[in-house]
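The records we work with from here on pair a chain with its fold. Taken together, the tokens spell out the fold as the letters spell out the chain. The record below shows the convention in full.
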Amino acid sequence: MAVRSRIKREAKTVSVMIALYCRAHHRRGDLCPECRELDEYARARLQSCPFQEAKTVCSRCPVHCYRPEMREKIRTVMRFSGPRMIYRHPVMAVYHLIDKRRKAQVKK
């Protein structure tokens, strides 16, 4: 149960960060097609993460499962949205910071 809720929480955090970015850069009420594609891609990557239970944040992961162009897009979104999350969604931001402190597990 804890594993599923952890992945769900991280998926929700990523979606909120993408929404913050899209609203600020693309001036739309809902996600633009490009941001929707990134959100779906990020959620799919989370669901297929080989670490599931022992997952750290993706930026600290020893396995990079994002395609290079998507990795660059998500990095841009994170750089923009990360600082704003503290004010807009403080609970999510704190959980993300806690998750960031997790040690990356080496998959055997």
In short: The two ends are 24 Å apart (CA to CA).
